[in-house]
Design brief:
- This protein is mainly α and about 100 residues long.
- It has 4 helices and no strands.
- It has a single domain, classed as Orthogonal Bundle (Helix Hairpins), CATH 1.10.287.3510.
- Helix content is about 85%, strand content about 0%.
- The chain is elongated, with a radius of gyration of 17 Å.
Amino acid sequence: MNITLHEILIFSAALFFIGVYGFLTRRNMITMLMAVELMLNSVNINFIAFNKYLWNHQLDGVFFTLFIIAIAAAEAAVAIAIIIHVYRHFKSIDAEDAVELKN
């Protein structure tokens, strides 16, 4: 079974738009963080797919993917710290509740 570049790009686009939908429709900040991570992982799939199918003997896509994974780990650590701070201050991790309580 051979998976084509077209199939991988369709899968990656589906993951990306699921992440966009999850980010725009959810109120829970942890769910929003998971949606952002899903979008970043779909970009990683694109980098690896293009690296494999277009530039097979180069590692540019792999290096970009590793860089994005490192950035995503740092982003997750900062986002979790912010979520913990918001929960301690507002006693809720819903984004809309925190904005309403502030006003």
